[in-house]
Amino acid sequence: MVVSTAILLIVGGICAAAPLFKRVSKGLEKGLVILGLAVGIAIIIVAIDLALGLGILSGIFGIGFAPESTSNPYLKYYLVVMAVLGILLFSRPLRNVRWASLIALGIGILAAAYLHVAFSVSSTVILGIVFIVTILIVYTLLRFVEDILEFIGTVLAFPPVAIVIGLVSIYFGIITFAT
Fold it and tell me: What radius of gyration, in Å, describes the C-alpha atoms of the chain?
């Protein structure tokens, strides 16, 4: 029974096509983006479970998630569609959050606290230097990754691209549901 995968693809496709609903209602579009975040997380989890062949979700919920790819020659691409759709839905609302600075700040605080507790360093100058150096190193490394993810999110969230991904996802959901 692959109803859950088909439903995820159809609902995710509708959420991805949220720019189509901008003219109808701004609130509807924002609601679809928020719903899309939850659906995107679910799609990513299901896609990872299916791609790795773990079967964890099938064991928990007692239903199958993988469609029978022999029934339609295009169904062999459903994992790619699910991955792109999940990344689109997950990255759209979180595109402008500065993850690198938040993670660097947290790791800098943890490094200074660890140095203070583990080695009994009480000099604020040393703790401050460790904090600053740790933040600079982590931020520099993560900023590059953040820029790449922001670029991917910007390309995928571009309305014509998002609408096409949404419509393709709805199509794959209907095909999956029909098999």
Answer: 21
List, in order, residues 6 or more apart from 162 with CB less than 8 Å away.
Answer: 16, 17, 18, 19, 88, 92, 156
Contact at 8 Å (CB) between 165 and 11? no
Distance of alpha carbon 160 from alpha carbon 58, whole angstroms: 35
The DSSP call for residue 62 is: S
pLDDT tens digits, 138-169: 999 999 888 888 888 889 889 999 999 999 99
Q: Which residue has the tokens 């991904």?
A: 165
20-72 pLDDT tens trace: 888 788 888 888 889 999 999 989 988 888 788 777 776 666 566 666 655 66
pTM for this prediction: 0.74
